[in-house]
Amino acid sequence: MKYLSIGLRALLTLAFVGAGFAKLAGAEMMVATYDAIGVGQWFRYVTGIIEVGGAALLWLPRRQVLAASVLGGTMFGAVLAHVFILGAAQGIPAVVLGLICTVLIYLHRDQINETLGRSA
């Protein structure tokens, strides 16, 4: 389980750091995507910061559930944007990344009570 977690976190880190920096750098595709969504370019910056920050959080001790939840939430939003605005077929990577986040939450489920501030 330890090595599965490391592998999934590495995969998520590559995906989210790449996507996050593309958003922050103003890659043409990202700018066009956020124009199409219609929420404004400020939201592209917010999403980029969340993605890069969430990827970093994956590697802090006992923060994997929090990180995977935040990143999974962004993927949920991405799936909704694709289904209702951008075109559902393009949303498949967001679905896959969201599922990987879900697996990571399951692997680190012992952190859930701690993350929610509950005693076990």
From TrEMBL:
Lineage at the top is: Bacteria, Pseudomonadati, Pseudomonadota, Alphaproteobacteria, Rhodobacterales
User: Where does this one sit in the cell?
Assistant: Membrane
The UniProt entry lists membrane topology as: Multi-pass membrane protein
Q: Which UniProt keywords apply?
A: Membrane, Transmembrane, Transmembrane helix
Q: Where does the source fall among the domains of life?
A: Bacteria
- Mention any one GO cellular component term assigned to this protein in its UniProt record: membrane
- Keyword field contains Transmembrane helix: yes
A Pfam family name for this chain? DoxX_2
Q: What is this protein called?
A: DoxX family protein
Which stretches are annotated as coiled coil? none
Query: Membrane-crossing residues?
Result: 42-60, 65-85, 91-108
